[in-house]
UniProtKB/TrEMBL annotation:
Species this protein is from: Chitinimonas viridis
Recorded family membership: Belongs to the PpiC/parvulin rotamase family.
Enzyme class: isomerase
Catalytic activity: [protein]-peptidylproline (omega=180) = [protein]-peptidylproline (omega=0)
Keywords: Isomerase, Rotamase
Domain PpiC residues, every copy: 288-380
Gene3D superfamilies: 3.10.50.40
Gene Ontology molecular functions: isomerase activity
Known EC number: 5.2.1.8
Name of the protein in question: peptidylprolyl isomerase
Length: 443
């Protein structure tokens, strides 16, 4: 699982100790079974084989406290606003649980499925739905909006459309309906179902059967108790809610999401705070004022290649320009002189000169219109400071200050949750002699 180790240190000390060999900890009275925790540890070591068990427990506790806080203060519609076009929360959690079990028990699952004769042998009957029944769910010419869902009547009709019947090795018999696979889809999958893609429908039914097989195997053959499986699911839910909370607070990097909370903090930033930030972080506000550059332009790539080869052999840039360039300034060594920024309206060659490092010719660059090839040399550049009252400074400083305030709020919240929490640790089960945990989890 992701985000098991990061870098915001908080000290969590158990209020008392446990000696139950089956428990790793209790958090606010709820047990953390050792066997379930060991499954999470086995996955963590795939990414870092040196990950100790106590760090996995630290992550579980951290996600638990923050996930519970998120659950108490926000509903799922607020935490997971994208479920209209993404997967439903129940489907997403179940899929992650199945993926967790597959990763932890891949070899055993593959062997057990081979022994059972493969997934197809679990299918007792495949059903071909009548077109009239499908049209009760997906009326002809019915479009699907991005936030569209089936009505109550349509879902009832979808539940009556059985796609396959099966029996699992554990003895459980069941059926997979159109409603079952509909609930497992994101907007792209739903669109394919609405469009009547029978191949996709059948493939999704088999995929759902494979997931049910994994869950059945975990229940009957993995050796995990119900409490262990419950921990795995709870760990996923807690981690997801924690991540959603960080996004709400503006502490998760997501270019497609705008945090209202962070925007409110940014709006409170004062001119005095911006000035103070400006003078404390002047390196962030340096800008290139102008550059001196030269270029070689060739209509034919082969000619430009010869020019580049000559430069590689030590021919001075100006001489190579006079020999190979067909630009109007070739006789002057290809000089472009000092170039100034044009506020986004500069020709592409000028824009390129402002991002190239000085002192080294560029590689061959094809012109955007395809009319030729360029080699550009930035000979020098002069830097200056953005004006402290500029819009760019205000924006950059306000963003940084707002995020700093959001992080400070998060740290204070987190510390309070730990102070108020009743955390009991079993140091013997974790393989160390004290109950102090180094929680290292970064927002």
């Amino acid at each position: 699982m992701a985000m098991l180790i990061a870098s915001l240190a908080v000290s969590a000390v158990s209020r008392d100790s446990l000696n139950d060999p089956g428990l790793a900890a209790r958090v606010n009275g709820e047990p953390i079974p050792l066997a379930g925790l060991t499954v999470l540890h086995s996955i963590a070591v795939h990414s870092d084989r040196h990950t100790p068990l106590n760090k996995v427990l630290a992550s579980v506790i951290d996600n638990r406290l923050l996930g519970e806080y998120a659950l108490r203060h926000y509903d799922d519609a607020t935490l997971f606003p994208g479920t209209g076009v993404a997967f439903s929360r129940a489907a997403a959690v179940e899929d992650q649980l199945v993926a967790t079990l597959r990763r932890a028990y891949k070899t055993q699952l593959d062997l057990a499925l081979d022994k059972a004769g493969g997934l197809d042998t679990l299918v007792k009957r495949r059903h071909v739905p009548a077109q009239a029944m499908l049209e009760q769910v997906f009326p002809p010419k019915r479009g699907l909006r991005l936030n569209s869902e089936l009505s109550t009547a349509q879902m009832a009709a979808a539940r009556q459309i059985v796609l396959l019947s099966y029996r699992l090795p554990g003895g459980e018999a069941g059926q997979i309906s159109l409603a079952d696979i509909w609930l497992k889809q994101n907007i792209q999958g739903k669109t394919q179902l609405v469009g009547g893609d029978a191949g996709y429908r059948d493939q999704q039914a088999m995929q759902l059967l494979a997931s049910r097989y994994v869950l059945d195997w975990a229940k009957h053959a993995s050796g995990l108790a119900p409490a262990d499986l419950a921990l795995l699911q709870r760990a996923i839910e807690d981690r997801d809610r924690r991540g959603a909370l960080l996004q709400l607070l503006g502490l998760a990097a997501d270019m497609h999401y705008s945090s209202e909370h962070l925007n409110r903090l940014i709006a409170t930033v004062t001119p005095a705070e911006i000035r103070d930030y400006y003078y404390r972080h002047q390196q962030e506000f340096r800008r290139i004022e102008r550059v001196r550059a030269s270029h070689i332009h060739c209509k034919e790539e082969a000619v430009c290649q010869r020019a580049y080869a000559a430069l590689g052999k030590g021919v001075p840039f100006g001489e190579a320009a006079r020999r190979f360039s067909d630009a109007a300034n070739a006789a002057d060594g290809g000089t472009l002189g000092w170039l100034l920024p044009r506020d986004g309206a500069a020709p592409w060659l000028h824009e390129l000169a402002f991002v190239l490092p000085p002192g080294k010719p560029s590689r061959l660059i094809r012109e955007p219109n395809g009319s030729g090839w360029q080699i550009v040399l930035v000979e020098a550049r002069e830097e200056g400071m953005q004006a402290p009252e500029s819009e760019a400074v205000r924006y950059i400083a306000s963003q940084a200050i707002g995020k700093k305030k959001a992080l400070a709020e998060f740290k204070a919240l987190r510390e309070k949750l730990y102070r108020d929490a009743d955390i009991a640790i079993n140091p013997t089960a974790l393989g160390f002699g004290q109950s102090a945990l180094n929680i290292q989890e970064q927002p």
